[in-house]
């Protein structure tokens, strides 16, 4: 299986992994960090201290200082590593998925009458593997402490259930954007999930004097470095992402001026305002939840930098980038465009590879004779949701399920549509006929979830065959 102990060990042991290339050194060299202050008082700098530090924003300086504390852990705990690796192997191993990979990504279950084509890249990414390993190691390393996690570790029900079994307390949400941190006491251990934690949460944890185990994916930190660079250059960050997504909440917390656009339609609204102005009140009302405090579109859309949530649809991000570039070119002329628009691609490799692989399945759908494509992954998982969009846009019947139980013994399927609705509908159109299907899974989906889903389909078909014989 891909979740090999050596891979995880390599992630955790490698110091290089935690710096280059993800630290965006070109923008903000680590060597510029000011002398570390210890956690006895507060690691968060005052505005005056910040002014004295050149080359990075106060928020970034605070974040880096916080990360230097002895109570901040991001490299795991070696003494429990082998035990955790075994636990992970046991939890996530998947025989059918291994067979699929060994048989050139295609298997046929003749008894059931089902042929399966697996996307060439799918399932757990290294960022998620690393996050799970770090969290499980924290549980073993602190057997007598109270452990908390500030959000779901990743968007996967099995992994989150496992952490609950391990008595890791999930910080509860209370109202929109609010969480109840009152259960965290001095000396407790707090795990930060793969999509990171906001500046305000880090500041609060600093004051509470707790041990922090940071599992933030370095690709997410790369986005934070990018928006920091925007701030330093006096640019407003335009973030292609969902303003309510945990990763984007963390990213925007490191910005001064920002606006989030979730898709091309919203990007066009912003581009139109950049070029032609418009009804400011209407604009602010529409984007009220997606902008920084005191946002003024008349003054803050003249110089912008684009960044994106790591898991967005790559093609859309590219198109949005081109739109803003053209808009600035129209408004200020080709010679001035670089003064008004800057773009860095912060989509992670894992997202891109999984999107490319499902595109390949889609391109071969006719050749393979695919009846449908199954996408397995958490319903809150942004990268999984984008995997569904690709076959959907190509007009291929496709379903996004979050666990095997979504496939009912009565031949129904409960799935999340591209519009975010959860619906139940008839599944296999003709149970008497053989089925050819494609399958993929999101970056936070264990292979075991794919295996269980395939087993459920095999069972459904086999039951029908038995009834007929
Ligand atoms: S999908 Fe990308 S950003 Fe998210 S955890 Fe995986 S590697 Fe990191």
CATH architecture of the largest domain: 3-Layer(aba) Sandwich
CATH fold call of the largest domain: Rossmann fold
The residue-averaged pLDDT reads 86
Helical content class:
40-55%
Low-confidence stretches: 1-41, 44-53
Q: Termini, distance in Å? A: 37 Å
Distinct ligands, ions and cofactors found in the model: iron/sulfur cluster
| Main beta-sheet annotation | 5 strands, parallel
DSSP, total strands: 16
Oligomeric form of this entry?
single chain
Strand content: 5-15%
CATH class of the largest domain: Alpha Beta
- Major beta sheet, strand line-up: 1-7-6-4-5
Query: Number of domains in the coordinates?
Result: 3
Radius of gyration: 24 Å
**SS field, number of helical segments:** 20
Structural class: alpha/beta
| Shape assignment | globular
Family: Belongs to the IspH family.
Protein name: 4-hydroxy-3-methylbut-2-enyl diphosphate reductase
GO molecular function: 4 iron, 4 sulfur cluster binding; 4-hydroxy-3-methylbut-2-enyl diphosphate reductase activity; metal ion binding
Cofactor: [4Fe-4S] cluster
